DNA sequence: TTGACAAACAGACTACCAGTTTGTTTTTAT
DNA sequence: ATAAAAACAAACTGGTAGTCTGTTTGTCAA
């Protein structure tokens, strides 16, 4: 005798968890709903009661991973002093999290295509993007960061640079080097590399 | 009485052209091979004679669009004097081309997912990436660009920044502003904005 | 408690679609 | 001229996302 809220959370959780691992291993298109169902120990009717379609289940997985990313960033940022150090630490935490094989495939490679550009943007806007933007704003206001364009624009550009860092390094072999390059990029705005 | 090479070029051209427009309008997953076939005026047998599968046809479309991008860039770069001016002009041309609705959807949004990370990277490596890398190398060697990290790394970062510029602006409403921000970013490396 | 209602779930069924197979026509090379 | 290969035609198949109808389980007011 479980409450409805518990049943709901249980079923959704099983589906999201099974889907998460299968999407990470085989990709969205090559993961059949049937194998998700058997992995979750749930029936078709249950799944389509909780999610309108396969893509909506994928979006729920994206949401979960994004929340995990936020947690990792907040943890990395916790002990930092100064807006620039905070920004750097948070950015590196983001990169490290996104470089994980499962996360990269789902959030970086497939999400824009599966969710479509708009819903993908909305996802970003809900999580990491505002965090990065506020970090940049603060650093600019404190004078730790100099940029002649807009803070919003710089956020888009840096966000993309970090994304590329993950996307261009399929097996994370050059990650240490690229992390350094990212830090060097930040330093270009703080006037330390004339 | 057409030669085989002509027949081949004709059939492939029709398929690629039809697929290009349909993929741009409805996306890869929602475009059935059947509608491509009727659009191209070609039968199933013909298509699967020239392409191993649907994804390979998509890749052919990507190749075509990438070549068109190269042409646009080379045209924009033609009259420029100086490595930095050349770099800026080429980058803006790349952004403007990729911001086109059809190009963005195919090359920026869907290609990483449909081709898979490796083949997508290979595509980039075949076209725009080397161009950008050489532009950056030259500018760095001439002293027009300063960066304490590697040229390769800076290429990855700038390439990603430009990608994000296109991806974060679904209806290109902020494109003029973002183009300015990109130029401001370049200036950070040339020591013009302390 | 009970009874009406809604939420959660079960599983068969359908429409469609990517890729295969087998057979036919056209070009090429000897 | 003829054998081989390239190009094409179209029927067919296995599998899959989403639907439909019906059943079970929880909720809440009287």
UniProtKB/TrEMBL annotation, chains A, B:
Highest taxon above the source species: Bacteria
Feature: DNA-binding region: 32-51
Domain HTH tetR-type span(s) in chain numbering: 9-69
The UniProt record lists the keyword DNA-binding: yes
Keywords in alphabetical order: DNA-binding, Transcription, Transcription regulation
InterPro entries given in the database record: DNA-bd_HTH_TetR-type_CS, Homeodomain-like_sf, HTH-type_TetR-like_transc_reg, HTH_TetR, Rv0078-like_C
Full protein name: Transcriptional regulator
Organism: Alcanivorax jadensis T9
């Amino acid at each position: 005798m479980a409450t409805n809220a518990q049943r709901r959370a249980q079923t959704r959780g099983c589906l999201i968890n099974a889907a998460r691992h299968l999407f990470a291993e085989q990709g969205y298109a090559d993961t059949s709903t049937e194998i998700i169902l058997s992995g979750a120990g749930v029936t078709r009717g249950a799944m389509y009661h909780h999610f309108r379609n396969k893509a909506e289940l994928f979006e729920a997985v994206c949401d979960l991973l994004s929340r995990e990313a936020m947690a990792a960033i907040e943890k990395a940022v916790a002990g930092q002093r100064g807006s620039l150090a905070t920004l750097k630490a948070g950015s590196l935490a983001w990169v490290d999290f996104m470089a994980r094989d499962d996360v990269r495939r789902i959030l970086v490679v497939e999400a824009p295509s599966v969710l479509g550009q708009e819903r993908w943007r909305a996802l970003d806007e809900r999580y990491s993007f505002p965090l990065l933007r506020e970090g940049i704003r603060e650093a600019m206001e404190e004078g730790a960061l100099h940029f002649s364009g807009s803070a919003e624009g710089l956020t888009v550009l840096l966000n993309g640079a970090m994304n590329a860092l993950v996307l261009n390094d399929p097996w994370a072999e050059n990650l240490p080097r690229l992390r350094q390059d990212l830090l060097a990029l930040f330093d270009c705005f703080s006037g330390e590399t004339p």
